[in-house]
Amino acid sequence: MATRIDGKAFAASLREKVAEGVATFVAKAGRKPGLAVVLVGEDPASQVYVRNKHKMTVAAGMESFEHRLPADTSQEALLALVDQLNADPAVDGILVQLPLPKGLDENAVIQAIDPDKDVDGFTTASAGRLATGLPGFVACTPLGCLMLLKDQLGDLSGKNAVVIGRSNIVGKPMAQLLLQESCTVTIAHSRTVDLPAVVRGADIVVAAVGRPEMVKGDWIKPGATVIDVGINRVPAAEEGKTKLVGDVDFAGAEATAGAITPVPGGVGPMTIACLLYNTLEAANRREGLA
Ligand SMILES: Nc1nc(=O)c2c([nH]1)NC[C@@H]1CN(c3ccc(C(=O)N[C@@H](CCC(=O)O)C(=O)O)cc3)C=[N+]21
């Protein structure tokens, strides 16, 4: 039976460490680190995440600047806000909540963020820095996955890692991080031939495809470490109710894996904790304290 990796507890202890780092920063810089979050429109899931981010930012001792804009906000107005935040000395980190409402050019807005304030790690500058090993910001979800993996396994070098999914915000940066840790990395995706066989060779599986319970228990190599990035809302057994499941068939994989993250309570909480971690890092760098 696999060890359950408690991402919720790990995230709570990371947020405590960040809070200590914030106190040190305040003593030296005479101000709080600041995180600006921009939410456009009324997407209910986004509102929940933004509220949680705000609460945890404040709890870590940071300044939280929330900018809520109507769904019909123009591209120009949004870009003007990003410019204003780029120029604001009290703002160390900028996060524009995705997805943006239809009609807005997501890529143009993300690329407008100053890479030194890109605590989401979504700009091409951040992606390029990661790929070439330069200091920058790593996207929060893959960074959180890496922290959990290192905590579980220690040295990752020489391990066979299979990342399922090739998105710019999870799959690709995850593969870069694992490569940096000297794993042998395979990126699998919808066109991969015989995915079960590919996954069976993996010491580390990171599932980030957004398909509920797609990765089956009998694909998992005995003792492998399984990181489930998926957060899929599906109908529950009880009529009219829903529940969250990952991209991995948890019950099946738990029997074979060495360790596995649950959903919820695995990778999700790490994402916000890493956002705070990156924001403190941004503040320290901007003040020459890093
Ligand atoms: N610019 C931008 N950056 C993001 O990082 C970003 C974004 N846009 N848009 C939306 C996604 C989603 N996301 C999550 C964060 C925390 C949980 C989380 O804490 N999940 C809990 C469960 C929450 C629940 O019950 O719904 C868990 O897995 O245990 C999930 C998802 C950040 N995102």
Automatic annotation (TrEMBL):
One of its GO terms (molecular function) is methylenetetrahydrofolate dehydrogenase (NADP+) activity. It catalyses: (6R)-5,10-methenyltetrahydrofolate + H2O = (6R)-10-formyltetrahydrofolate + H(+); (6R)-5,10-methylene-5,6,7,8-tetrahydrofolate + NADP(+) = (6R)-5,10-methenyltetrahydrofolate + NADPH. One of its GO terms (cellular component) is cytosol. It comes from the Bacteria. One of its GO terms (biological process) is tetrahydrofolate interconversion. SUPFAM superfamilies: Aminoacid dehydrogenase-like, N-terminal domain (SSF53223), NAD(P)-binding Rossmann-fold domains (SSF51735). Pathway: One-carbon metabolism; tetrahydrofolate interconversion. Its EC number is 1.5.1.5, 3.5.4.9. NADP(+) binds at G165, R166, S167, I231. Keywords: Amino-acid biosynthesis, Histidine biosynthesis, Hydrolase, Methionine biosynthesis, Multifunctional enzyme, NADP, One-carbon metabolism, Oxidoreductase, Purine biosynthesis. The keyword NADP applies. Residues 139-286 form the Tetrahydrofolate dehydrogenase/cyclohydrolase NAD(P)-binding domain. The keyword Chaperone does not apply. Residues 5-120 form the Tetrahydrofolate dehydrogenase/cyclohydrolase catalytic domain. Catalyzes the oxidation of 5,10-methylenetetrahydrofolate to 5,10-methenyltetrahydrofolate and then the hydrolysis of 5,10-methenyltetrahydrofolate to 10-formyltetrahydrofolate. Belongs to the tetrahydrofolate dehydrogenase/cyclohydrolase family. Homodimer. This is Bifunctional protein FolD.
